Structure formats: structure tokens, C-alpha cells
From TrEMBL:
Pathway stated in the Swiss-Prot or TrEMBL entry: Amino-acid biosynthesis; L-asparagine biosynthesis; L-asparagine from L-aspartate (L-Gln route): step 1/1
Lineage: Bacteria, Bacillati, Actinomycetota, Actinomycetes, Kitasatosporales
Keywords: Amino-acid biosynthesis, Asparagine biosynthesis, ATP-binding, Glutamine amidotransferase, Nucleotide-binding
Protein's recorded name: asparagine synthase (glutamine-hydrolyzing)
UniProt source species: Streptomyces enissocaesilis
Transmembrane regions listed in the UniProt entry: none
């Protein structure tokens, strides 16, 4: 979008659109009028005809839009809009979005149940509206200058357009090294790229002035609507909400499968789909060779669930030597650097699943919304005034003081940027206890830019759409109001385990928690270490000079010995940033 009255650089938009081909292999479209140009790559899931193609123009209402994601309640909304006098030319959820915007303006987002990032251009005013779903499941990256705004579903697509400031943002690097590679919206590691925060609408006027507003934030308090509920009531409420969430995510004009890890969360999805009467359900699991005595698969549990519910089950066992060869493809698919071991696993699994299906459901989000991680009991034990320091102690990879020996002086910030962010977030009203404040931070910040982003990037790199029922916004609202003691019970996710016992074998519910390791990365197996050494010794790395050379040498001298406070390999965290920058041509 141009702000100076000039025409948009359509060639740049073409390049950006082409860079999104993997996310949308089924169609390509362009539209330009006045100061706005829109490009789209399509993944056909709802209304497989060309009537559902994008960019979609509603000439009667003077709107053109592009949309990534799925509106799960689009059929109900369509019926409501038809009752209000709207007429439809397609059966797509994209057209429902355009009509909803015409009916309710930016308030349309409050009517949408789903995952989405969209842009709608108003023909008569030249106004552009950008919006992102409540939990940030679908990404939206921005790069702005004095005379233009560009946006895309991936950061590499923005780079393809050119003219992006690719210098590193020191505050973002601080967050990257503090929070297991998470960088909170609106920042990215690149100074010239930002991302629209979740649950946010931005309205951009013709001259570039804009307003943003956040349209959703659940209260992490005990609301009167749930007064008098006991543990059994909460168990039933959570199970019913999850049942609704899973049913909503069956909406598609193509088959829907499940990524089945064998853990409680994905197993529950399989059980509830079976309960809905879905037969011949395709399920998929991935595992890795053991390294250093650490197991790399959980097939015994996924096999148990697949057998119990008679799914069409697929196993993928990946040998360690394939991890290093698969690593570069996974890094290329990353919109931002991600250090979690399962990134490579999701990328390789998605490649295989995409040969069979276009849509899957996945279990991400349950641990964040229902307190499944090991650091939550410590948060529950402190008073509100102690919460930021306790959170930093149990969650951060390292304290602020450690960064001085890691980073070159030009990359250091003079204050504890990551700690300051946490303190500010936790001080906001609307969280009743220290645990509530920690869960709110994890669900609405940390989760969005770690597991949620990871799943989107790795699946969509193969044209595979992953739907996450645990992030249904009504289920998230319910979980936020659930008493902390019910979430913390039974070693975490107690209320969900109680729900699981209603529909799953007990050995799946009562098993030890798994963390889906990729041993070849965790322990720096030979080929992975070779790739790390190559990246850190490259001319680009030396020229960039992000990390102090003595610190890097110390890590390389003992690749498996240096761990963050949370147990991650410190060398991998340092190297992955450099590998990502080099992979995306950033010098």
C-alpha cells in the first residue's frame, strides 16, 4: 500500500506472492487498484471451485480481500447474513468474511470463530484493514516505510519484496536468548520487520495514518458465571468445550486427519473425532533414533490410541543422519528462528502427511491453557509481587547479566529488556493470582511466538493446514476461568486428565509426560555439529559479529556440555540464529 499517491510496486508484490507458493500450491491471484495491490496463494479447503479464488472482489460492496486460515462458523454466519439481505456468489468462507465486514465493519472479527489473518481494501475510501485471530494462529508480518506498507504471511515473503531493513533488533535478540528463541509481537529479530499482535485490528488510512485496537482478552479471574461448579462440573465443561472445538475443526470440503503424538492432548482429539462418528480417520506419528541413551519416539502410546479407535495410522521413523539433511529445509521454512527440537520433526512429518491430506488437527496449546508445564507449581506458590522474578527464575533461559559475556557490545541493550516486558505484562489488571498472570503471559505471548508459530510454519511449508482445537477461543476463555488448583492437580492439566479418563485408555492418561525430543539435535550428533561449525565459522558470521568469539569457542570446545537453565543446548541456540540468517540471505 502506497501513502504518497503513487502506484504500488506490483513486481515486488508478484515476488512476494511467488515466495508464498508452498503455503498455497493450488492457485495464484493478483489484484491492484489505486494505491493498493494484493497477492494471494491458495490452498483449496473450502469451496474448491474457482469462485473461491483470491484476491476476492465483492463488486457490489466495493471490497477486495485476501485471507489466510479458516472461519469455522462460516455456514452459520452465512445464514445470518443472508437473513440480513446479503447475497452470495460462492460457498467460500472468504466471501462470508467480506460480507461480514460490510455488515459489521471491524467488529466482524468478534463474530468469527476460527484462525485467520486477513486484509480488506475498501475501493471508495482507499482504506486498508488488517486483522489477526485471537490466539495468533495465523501470522501477519509487516514492513513499513515513510511512503508504503507491505504485509505477508511469512517474513521471507517480505524479504522477497526488497527494501527491508535487515539489521538485528537488539531488544529482540535479548528476548531470543532469554525466552527459548521467542520474540514477542510486535518485534522480530529484524529491525525492519514487525508482526501484527494477536487479537488485533489495524485500520490504515489512505495517507498512512493508522489505528490499532485489541478486540479480545479473556479474564484470568474466577467469574461469577462459574460459581458453585465442583471438580466434576469443570471436568465436564472442559470436555464439552473441547468436543465443540474438535467438531468445529471438522469443517472442510476435504478430509481432516490428526497428528497423533500419543500424548493426552492429541489422543483426546482422536477419541472425540471417533465419538463424532468419523471413520477411516488418518493419524500420523513421527519418531527419531535414540542418541546418548535418550529415546526419540513414543510409538507405543500412539499405536495404542490408533488401535483403540481403529484409525488408518502412519508411522514415520527418522534416522539421525536424516536430521541434519532435513535441518536446512526446516530453517528455510521458518519465518523466524526457532530452536525447539521438534521443529525439524514437524517439518519432516508434514512433508509425508501432505502427500495424503490437506488438513489435520493437532494438540498444541493444552499445556499453556491448562497449566501442564513443570514451572507452573512454582508460580502458584508465590504472591503477586513476587511473580515476575519467580517467572524469570523458572522460565528464562538465562539472566540478563549473562548476556554481557555472550554478545558483542553493539548487540547489548543497557537494561533487562526481557524482564521489563514480563514485569509490565504481569502488572496489568485481569489476573487474580500469580499463576493466572503466568498463564496469561504464556498463552497470549510466549505460546503464540513459539509452538503456535512453529506448527503453522512447518505444516504450511508443505501446503498442509494444521488446526488446533485447544486454542478454540471459547475453550481458552473457559480454561482461563478454571480454578488454578484444578489445573495444577495430578502433576498438571488435572482437569483435562479427568476429562481424558472419560474417553481414553487410562494408560494414555496416566503415562509420564513426554517432550518429543530430537536426540540428534539435543546432543549435537556428528552431522548436526558439522553444520553448526560451518555456520559459525562462515564469513557472514564473522562479519556480523553478534556473539563474542571467546564465548563461541567455549561452546564449540564442549558442544554437549553447555545448557540453558531450561536444559536446552546453548550452542544450538547460538548457531540456529546464525544458520537462519544465512539461510535467508541476511548479511
Amino acid at each position: 500500500m502506497r501513502f504518497d499517491g503513487g502506484r504500488p510496486d506490483v513486481a515486488a508484490v508478484e515476488r512476494m506472492t511467488d515466495r508464498l507458493a508452498a503455503r498455497g500450491p493450488d492457485g495464484r491471484g493478483m489484484w491492484s487498484q489505486g494505491a493498493v495491490a494484493l497477492g494471494h496463494r491458495r490452498l483449496k479447503i473450502i469451496d474448491l471451485s474457482e469462485r473461491g479464488a483470491q484476491p476476492m472482489t465483492d463488486a457490489q460492496n466495493g471490497l477486495t480481500g485476501v485471507f489466510n486460515g479458516c472461519i469455522y462458523n462460516y455456514q452459520e454466519l452465512r445464514r445470518k447474513l443472508e437473513g440480513l439481505g446479503h447475497r452470495f456468489f460462492s460457498t467460500s468462507d472468504t466471501e462470508v468474511l467480506l460480507k461480514a465486514y460490510r455488515q459489521w465493519g471491524t467488529g466482524c472479527v468478534e463474530h468469527l470463530f476460527g484462525m485467520f489473518a486477513f486484509a480488506i481494501a475498501e475501493h471508495d475510501t482507499g482504506r486498508l484493514v488488517l486483522a489477526r485471530d485471537r490466539l495468533g494462529i495465523k501470522p501477519l508480518y509487516l514492513t513499513e516505510g515513510a511512503d508504503r506498507l507491505r504485509f505477508a504471511s511469512t517474513l521471507p515473503a517480505l524479504l522477497a519484496g526488497g527494501g527491508v531493513d535487515t539489521s538485528l533488533d537488539p531488544v529482540a535478540v535479548h528476548q531470543y536468548l532469554s525466552w527459548h528463541a521467542t520474540v514477542a509481537a510486535p518485534r522480530t529479530v529484524l529491525a525492519g520487520v514487525r508482526k501484527l499482535p494477536p487479537a488485533t485490528v489495524r485500520v490504515v488510512e489512505r495517507d498512512g495514518r493508522y489505528q490499532e485496537h485489541r478486540y479480545w482478552q479473556p479474564s484470568y479471574t474466577r467469574r461469577s458465571a462459574y460459581a458453585g461448579m465442583d471438580a466434576a462440573d469443570w471436568r465436564d465443561a472442559v470436555l464439552d468445550a473441547l468436543r465443540t472445538a474438535v467438531r468445529r475443526r471438522m469443517v472442510a470440503d476435504v478430509p481432516v486427519g490428526v497428528l497423533l503424538s500419543g500424548g493426552l492432548d492429541s489422543s483426546l482429539i482422536v477419541a472425540l473425532l471417533a465419538e463424532e462418528g468419523q471413520t477411516d480417520l488418518s493419524t500420523f506419528s513421527v519418531g527419531f533414533e535414540s542418541e546418548n541413551g535418550e529415546e526419540g519416539d513414543e510409538f507405543s502410546y500412539s499405536d495404542l490410541v490408533a488401535k483403540r479407535f481403529a484409525t488408518d495410522h502412519h508411522q514415520l521413523m527418522i534416522p539421525s543422519d536424516r536430521v541434519s539433511t532435513g535441518l536446512d529445509g526446516a530453517v528455510e521454512a521458518m519465518s523466524e528462528p526457532m530452536v525447539s527440537h521438534d521443529t525439524v520433526a514437524f517439518h519432516m512429518l508434514s512433508e509425508q502427511v501432505a502427500k495424503e491430506l490437506t488438513v489435520v488437527q493437532s494438540g498444541q496449546g493444552a499445556d499453556e491453557i491448562l497449566a501442564g508445564y513443570h514451572w507452573y507449581p512454582a508460580m502458584a506458590a508465590v504472591e503477586r509481587e513476587q511473580e515476575p522474578e519467580t517467572y524469570a527464575d523458572v522460565y528464562f533461559d538465562r539472566p540478563h547479566a549473562d548476556l554481557a559475556r555472550m554478545l558483542q557490545p553493539h548487540m547489548l541493550v543497557g537494561h533487562d529488556a526481557s524482564g521489563d516486558f514480563v514485569r509490565a505484562h504481569m502488572a496489568v489488571d485481569g489476573a487474580e493470582t500469580a499463576l493466572d498472570a503466568a498463564l496469561r503471559l504464556d498463552v497470549h505471548v510466549m505460546m503464540v511466538d513459539d509452538p503456535v508459530k512453529r506448527v503453522d510454519n512447518m505444516t504450511m511449508a508443505w501446503g498442509l493446514e494444521a488446526r488446533v482445537p485447544f486454542l478454540d477461543h471459547e475453550l481458552v476463555e473457559l480454561a482461563a476461568a478454571c480454578p488454578p488448583e484444578l489445573k495444577l492437580a495430578q502433576g498438571g492439566k488435572g482437569v483435562l486428565k479427568d476429562a481424558g479418563r472419560q474417553v481414553l485408555p487410562r494408560e494414555v492418561v496416566d503415562r509420564p509426560k513426554g517432550y518429543f525430543p530430537v536426540p540428534a539435535i539435543r546432543h549435537m550428533a556428528g552431522p548436526v555439529l558439522e553444520r553448526v561449525r560451518e555456520a559459525l565459522s562462515a564469513p557472514e558470521a564473522r562479519q556480523r559479529g553478534v556473539f563474542r568469539e571467546p564465548y563461541v569457542a567455549e561452546l564449540l570446545a564442549a558442544p554437549d556440555a553447555h545448557r540453558t537453565k531450561r536444559g536446552a543446548n546453548a550452542l544450538w541456540q547460538v548457531a540456529l540464529l546464525e544458520i537462519w540468517l544465512q539461510t535467508h540471505g541476511i548479511r
